[in-house]
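Let's practice the habit of predicting before peeking. Look at the sequence and jot down your guess about where helices and strands might fall. Then scroll down.
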Amino acid sequence: MPPDPAAIERARAVKAAHEDELMALPNVVAVGVGLRSTGGQITGEVAIIVSVVEKLPDEAIDPGERIPPEIDGVPVDVQQSGVISAGGG
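Done guessing? Here is the structure:
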């Protein structure tokens, strides 16, 4: 079943409101909206996707620098992406 358009718009609005603070966190390289995945399987749930260089256990992250599991009622999915850089010619 395709994602609910209202859920996508809600997630986009919350992402826009919080993107700067998420991007300011160490290890964060991108913020977007997409479908949550768990254990490598897409769940179909609309979420704010926060891409990090490396996923770390909570105890390795300062409490003030942890990515929350949800923001304003929208789930947050942290995905390891490695370093992201612009492609060159």
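How did you do? The radius of gyration is 13 Å.
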